[in-house]
Write a structure and sequence with these properties.
The chain contains 14 helices and 4 strands. By secondary structure, the chain is mainly alpha-helical.
Length: 352
């Protein structure tokens, strides 16, 4: 996240929290009594009672997500210790500032109680905090996973592609000869992060609480499994293995994969993080999760299917991933969906 954007988000959160507190303080003498279809009447009322933390996001499912964050953090500490890695702490404060801002604003809903409809806003902030925290823990954990120095998985990934009849070098060479397709593939591939952010925003604006929580659950489960797969099956990616040039620059990423796996790099900078996972492709995982989040919403779903089909194809024809990386994403997402239906949604329902 860029410094100007982080500053803007922090300032907006602080201003919103301050103005909310002033608005509620001014209303403590009087209140707006609402009834369905009726006009507003002004009546005296006492200060609003504080809601339970479960109503603000710390429900059983929210507790599970925080627990997963704690386990991920513990795994990160262990892997960094085992790999003898260090963190450049001067690069950490930007992410820490955003997390702190989210916590302060979330606590505002507890210490400065408001209307019941605001509880959902607090839940959105809690979910955002959990997902940002997991990202700040697991993205650096990639480097610890590589430092464990498990054998390279590229030979068997290449054999799997050959068995499937997929040649990433040949597909990338074809893409290079079609500049328009190369540009379109690069553009589709770059929609991953905006799609993840916009999915949360749209679900929040539409007040689709259950789907927002489900999206957060899948994000946690799939990202954790993906990083675990990196520790077991590290890969230098198809361009590094076959020594060809992808249509999207991967020079820094491949250098980091090799450097941390071989031990020539030992310092992790939070301002120089990259996505290092080959198998399974988290870009494909994200595309499937975003599409699943809008199932049954035809006006949104149809364009998403088109866009994410292009994104999935782009992961191979740009040279970013092996074909098997793409296929492996599907059972991971399916397993996460099954896990949510088996247990996750019941945790959410238990706070109702």
């Amino acid at each position: 996240m860029s410094f100007p954007l982080l500053c803007a988000v922090g300032v907006l959160l602080a201003m919103w929290s301050f103005l909310r507190k002033r608005r509620l303080a001014a209303a403590w003498g009087t209140m707006d009594a609402w009834s369905a279809g009726e006009t507003i009447q002004e009546v005296s009322r006492p200060r609003a009672a504080r809601p339970g933390l479960a109503r603000l996001g710390l429900n059983p499912l929210g507790q599970l997500l925080i627990g997963l964050n704690v386990l991920a953090l513990a795994a990160g500490v262990a892997s960094f210790s085992a790999g003898r890695l260090a963190i450049e702490w001067s690069t950490v404060w930007l992410g820490a500032a955003l997390l702190s801002a989210l916590v302060v604003v979330w606590l505002n809903f507890y210490f400065v109680p408001g209307a019941r409809w605001e509880w959902f806003v607090a839940e959105v902030l809690f979910i955002t905090f959990a997902m940002v925290l997991l990202t700040n823990v697991l993205v650096p954990l990639q480097y610890g996973a590589l430092a464990l120095r498990a054998p390279w998985a590229d030979p068997w990934l290449a054999r799997a592609d050959a068995w499937l009849g997929v040649s990433t070098p040949a597909l990338t060479a074809w893409t290079w000869t079609h500049p328009v397709i190369a540009a379109a593939a690069k553009a589709a591939y770059s929609t991953f992060a905006p799609q993840m952010l916009l999915t949360m925003l749209v679900l929040a604006v539409r007040r689709e609480r259950d789907r927002l929580w489900e999206f957060a659950f899948h994000f946690h489960i799939c990202l954790i499994v993906t990083i675990a797969a990196l520790a077991i099956w590290p890969a230098v990616h198809a361009p590094g293995y076959y020594a060809f040039t992808p249509t999207i620059d991967m020079t820094r990423m491949i250098a980091q994969v090799k450097g941390f796996h071989e031990g020539t790099m030992t310092v992790v900078r939070f301002d120089d993080l990259d996505g290092l996972v080959s198998f399974p492709s988290f870009h494909v995982v994200g595309a499937l999760l975003v599409t699943w989040a809008f199932r049954g919403r035809r006006r949104i779903l149809v364009p998403l299917i088109v866009l994410n089909t292009c994104l999935i194809i782009s992961t191979v024809i740009t040279g970013e991933h092996y074909g098997i990386d793409v296929l492996a994403a599907a059972p991971l997402v399916a397993a996460s969906i099954a896990a949510y239906r088996w247990g996750g949604r019941h945790l959410l329902a238990s706070d109702a």
